[in-house]
Amino acid sequence: MDQGSDSLLENLRRATTALLDERRPPFSLRPELQQAAECLHRSTAGSFHPADEIDRGETRTAHGLCLSPTMAAMCADDYVRTIVFLRGLHRAILDALVDPPRRPVRVLYAGCGPLATLALPLLSVLDESQVRFTLVDIHHESIASVRTAVQRLGVGRSVADLVAIDALNYRIDPGNPPDLLVIETMQACLAAEPQVAITRHLAAQAPDAVLIPETVRIELRLVDPAAAFGDADRCEAEEERLGPVFELSRRSLSSFPADGEVLSGASVVLPDPWPGDLQAMLFTTIRVHGEHHLEARDSGLTSPRVLALDGPVRPGDRLRFSYHLGRDPQLRCHRLEP
């Protein structure tokens, strides 16, 4: 590692240390996240900054949409999400280190993108005696980019492997399973991207691995539509929560069928009479690890979505939710007969 790379690593370490300081709220750390992201961009020597055609290179698979390398790099701009995921993963690694056997924690990171945004910053503050990452992405350009960054930052001893493959085709070595599974290939309400499919595929091969995120939960709420995307305190004061309708976690995985394209969610009865002018909307909440979580409106991953139903929502309706896998994965809702 030359002097320039040494300076780059030190700058990344300084920014990452600030991001991991839990005394500082994530929303106050946008400049530090931008500094870390700039270090990652410089270390890759690639060109993944925003361009006119940010979707060029995206891949549509049998299991959902895989973002283009440029779009994947831009996900770091959702800075509260990135900081909360970094803190949760960092805490999970430290938690795993206290349990025997006392060896480096093995982390499998599926969908790492061209910046390995949830790995490289942590490798600036953790060494090879603490953690070893296996980095997987469907795009060869992304893996080539990460390989360049690993070399320039001098953190190769903390990287077990770099693999360009669809995560749905990745096979875990049963003799060397990961301790942590990091999968962040999602949008709000688990739409479009293959988060559910990848989680089910990899978690089945590593039943003892800790999932990052631990839980993704989708709730149905009745909210004031004028406040739903604005003042969170006002919206929460005027909303009525009807309960979770779908969850992705270790617990829910155990209840899903081993195969099949439809996963059962919950049933919900809408109130009658209807409470004022409230609208039915879906909210995503994410527990990354321990106390590190993203609530509704904290991130693009947790922005509200209007409930889609065949026809108008009616007081007293009984709704049934199910998650449909395949090329266009999404949570669906249908009305049950009275």
Explain what the structure shows.
The protein has 338 residues and is an alpha/beta fold. The protein has one domain: Rossmann fold, CATH 3.40.50. Helix content is 28%, strand content 26%. It has a 5-stranded parallel beta sheet, with helices on both faces. Strand 1 and strand 2 form a beta hairpin. Helix 2 crosses helix 6. The longest helix is centred in the N-terminal third of the chain and has 19 residues, at 79-97. The radius of gyration is 21 Å and the shape is globular.
State the CATH architecture.
3-Layer(aba) Sandwich
Biggest β-sheet: strands ordered side by side in the sheet: 5-4-3-6-7
The CATH homologous superfamily name equals Vaccinia Virus protein VP39
Shape: globular
Output the radius of gyration: 21 Å
The profile of the biggest β sheet is:
5 strands, parallel
Beta fraction of the residues? 25-35%
Low-confidence stretches: none
Output the number of helix runs: 9
What is the total tally of β strands?
A: 15
CATH topology: Rossmann fold
Query: Strand pairing plus helix content: what structural class?
Result: alpha/beta
Tell me the series of helices and strands, N- to C-terminal. HHEEHHEHEHEEHEEHEHEEEEEE
Q: How far is the N terminus from the C terminus?
A: 69 Å
Nearest-integer average pLDDT: 93
Number of domains: 1
CATH class: Alpha Beta
Helix content: 25-40%
